[in-house]
Each structure stands twice: as C-alpha cells, then as structure tokens.
Amino acid sequence: MEIMQVIGSLVCTHRVAGLGHMHLRVLRSNKGKLSVAVDPVGASAGNWVFTASGSAARFACPDPNTYTDLTIGGIIDFWAPDG
Amino acid sequence: MEIMQVIGSLVCTHRVAGLGHMHLRVLRSNKGKLSVAVDPVGASAGNWVFTASGSAARFACPDPNTYTDLTIGGIIDFWAPDG
Amino acid sequence: MEIMQVIGSLVCTHRVAGLGHMHLRVLRSNKGKLSVAVDPVGASAGNWVFTASGSAARFACPDPNTYTDLTIGGIIDFWAPDG
Amino acid sequence: MEIMQVIGSLVCTHRVAGLGHMHLRVLRSNKGKLSVAVDPVGASAGNWVFTASGSAARFACPDPNTYTDLTIGGIIDFWAPDG
Amino acid sequence: MEIMQVIGSLVCTHRVAGLGHMHLRVLRSNKGKLSVAVDPVGASAGNWVFTASGSAARFACPDPNTYTDLTIGGIIDFWAPDG
User: Fold this and answer.
1) How far apart, in whole angstroms, are the C-alpha atoms of residue E36 and residue E21?
2) Most A CBs within 10 Å, among D4, D12, D21, to test the A interface
3) Chain B touching partners, 3 or more CB pairs below 8 A
4) DSSP 8-class letter at E30
C-alpha cells in the first residue's frame, strides 16, 4: 500500500456505471504525483491515508463490484519507528 | 486511477479480436507519458479524464471480456480542493 | 495499453511450458526501456504496436492459458490528433 | 518480489474492515521509497524483507480475504552471489 | 516480460508457507534495480533471463498456488534484431 495525502475531490458528470456513488478523492504522493481513489472511509482534505491498488482496491469497497484500481484503506493517525 | 488528457485516436487494422469495436484513445499524463485506452464514455480530444487500470479496466467496459488494461472511467468536469 | 516498437526476437531454449509456441518479441518504449511480449498478431521489426499487460495479456492470446504478462494487441497504422 | 527494509509500524484507527488485525509495517526501498505492507511473519524494525505484491499479496496472508496489495513474504537472512 | 540478469540466491529462514521449496533468485535489471524471483527453470548466476510478473508469475510455477509475483520464464540464449 502507498502513503498519500488527500488534496481534494473530483467531479465527473460522465462516468462509467461501475463506480456507483462512491466519492472520488484526488491524492498526492510525497513526490507530487496525483492519483484518483474511491473513498469508503470518509477522509478529508489534508488527511494522510494509505491506499490499496490492483484487485485489492475492488475488494476493499463495500460493493466489491466497484470498478476501481485505487481505494483509500485507512486514515493514518501516526506512524512509529519501532524499537 | 490516473488523471490524463485525450490527445487523439489510434487506428489499428491488425489487432486481437478481444478489443471488439471499442474506440482506442491516445492519452497523455501531465509528465508527457503516452498511453492507449479504450473509451466507453465518448471522450473528445482535449478532455481531461481519469482511467482505471488492471483488471478494473476490463470490468469498466460494457463487455467485461474486452481485453484492455486501461479504460477511461469518466470525464473530469472539475476538481475542487476540499475545505 | 502502451505504445512500443518491435526491435527483434528472443530465442530461449529453456523456458516454462506455459508459453507454448508463441513468438517472443523484444520491444522498446520511446524512453528506451526493453520488454518482452508474446505476439499473436505477427508484428515485424520496426512496427509500432500497442501492448496489453497484466491479466489482459493472457486473455489477449488465442490460448488464455499462455503465461504472459505482456501481449502485442495490435499493429498501429497511424494515430490522429482528434478535431 | 522486492527487497525492502522495515522502518516502523503504522497506526490507523479508521480503516476498512478487510485488513483484519494484521500489523501494518512501513517499509523503505533502497531508493528511499516508502510503502505499507501487512506482516504475517513478524518482522522487526531494521529487518530486510522481501515483499509480494498484487494478488499474490492477498494469498500470502493466513486469511486470503485480507485486502492488501503488499505483504511481507519473508525475512532475509543473507543473500549469496552464486558460484 | 522483463529482461534481467541472475546475480545470486536468497536465503530466508522465516518465510510464508506459500512459496514451497522454490529457489529464490536475486535479479538485476539493466538499470541496476534488484528484484527477487522464484526459479522453476534452474538459472545460474550470470544468466540473462526473462521474467513474468503479476498473476502470470503464479501460473508459470509448477504449483500454481506458489505465492509469487515474479517468476523466471526462461533463460535467454540470444536475441536477434529481425530482418
């Protein structure tokens, strides 16, 4: 999974049926790359999240038939260097 | 999903049967990378779109047996920084 | 799908059974990256082709049990900027 | 599979149900890229591990319904140049 | 598929069950990137090989339940620019 930050939402009137009513978030990696993910956890702009890609992205949605290749898996509270 | 811009169409007389009659669009990322996607939503040159890759690309087609690894999922109207 | 150019063929005496008798082509992207693809369409050196990756690569073969992650999907005649 | 080093753990109160109670580790590649993986082998910070991605990541978990795209496959004792 | 060179073997006492007794090889791309692959063809250090990734990596193993995302598909004898 990747670590990314939510920077906004995406509005798309014309889209394929398989995405349902899921919110689409615009994410930015720490290298500045933008991606679009569906959001089943309710993240807000500024949140750091981790994302699941590939077929895991579909299964991570409440409806596994959602046609996504990137899904927000969780909101990061903090991460701790071990030991 | 990725954000890309439609820059043209691709003509291929010899192609595998599994792509049916789907239109093939040439897309460009904001870093200049070119890709080819099938287009079930009817995008035009200049449109900014988001794309689904991997197995999600197949399911996003009207015929899930379309042998694509990249499909246009929607045309972006605009995106809004939240908050 | 990606746009690549055929630059040669690959000879491999020892290979896994699952690739059958498919021809293996060496392809080069416009950034110089080399890849190996199976070729169900009969491309020649110098041809520009588009390729399907991931699970779509397997389904694009006449025998869907071909164990490939990259398959030539078609030979590009030309591409046209729209409009 | 990729070679990466464990540098910490991730705490996420809000996450999708499909990750169960698996530990989430933060990994760093030798190029400095950070990723998040589930850890069924019990790695510690500082360990060098190899990771399985894609659908293999799910199957490498005790519960194959874990919705991960990156799983630690083993802790590297050492690697030996052959011959 | 990618072209890579075998540079060594990997020893991992603690690893997930799903990799069976397959040998793990360390491979290097021509850009210096290191990866780990299972080896059903018996490659030696110095050999140039091509690799299958994703779900094809699993199917290319004698036991399709091997939890790998990278498998050596064949040893390259030579490659010939066509024509």
Assistant:
1) 15
2) D12
3) A, C
4) T
Provide the residue count of chain A.
Answer: 83
Q: Which residues contact A61 (CB under 8 A, 6 or more apart)?
A: A22, A38, A40, A68, A71
**Which of E9, E13, E18 is facing D79, going by the closest CB pair?**
E9
Two tokens, residue E8: 């060594």
D2-75 CATH choice from 1.10.357.10, 3.40.50.450, 3.40.50.10490, 2.40.50.220: 2.40.50.220
Q: Can you give the pLDDT at residue B46? A: 93
If you average pLDDT over every residue of chain C, what do you get? 89
Distance from CA of B58 to the nearest CA of A (A): 9
Chain B residue closest to A59 (CA)? B56
Give C83's pLDDT tier (boundaries 50, 70, 90). Answer: low
Q: What pLDDT, on a 0 to 100 scale, did the predictor assign at position A82?
A: 61
| Per-residue tokens: C43 | 């491309």
Question: How far is the C-alpha of E57 from the C-alpha of E51, rounded, in Å?
Answer: 8
Please tell me which of the candidates E2, E40, E77 has its beta carbon nearest to residue C13: E77
- d(C-alpha A68, C-alpha D15), whole Å: 17
Rounded CA-CA distance A49/E34 in Å is 28
Residue C20 reports pLDDT greater than 70 = yes
Beta bridge partners of C25: C9, C37
Specify the 3-state DSSP secondary structure of C13: coil
Q: In a 10 Å sphere around its CB, with 0-12 CB exposed, 13-18 middle and 19+ buried, how is residue C29 labelled? A: middle
Min Cα separation B81/chain C (Å): 30
Using CA atoms, how far apart are residues E22 and D74, in angstroms rounded to an integer? 13
Distance between CA atoms of B3 and B24, rounded to whole angstroms? 17
- Report the DSSP beta bridge partners of residue B71: B38, B52
Smallest Cβ–Cβ distance between D54 and the set E9, E12, E55 belongs to: E55
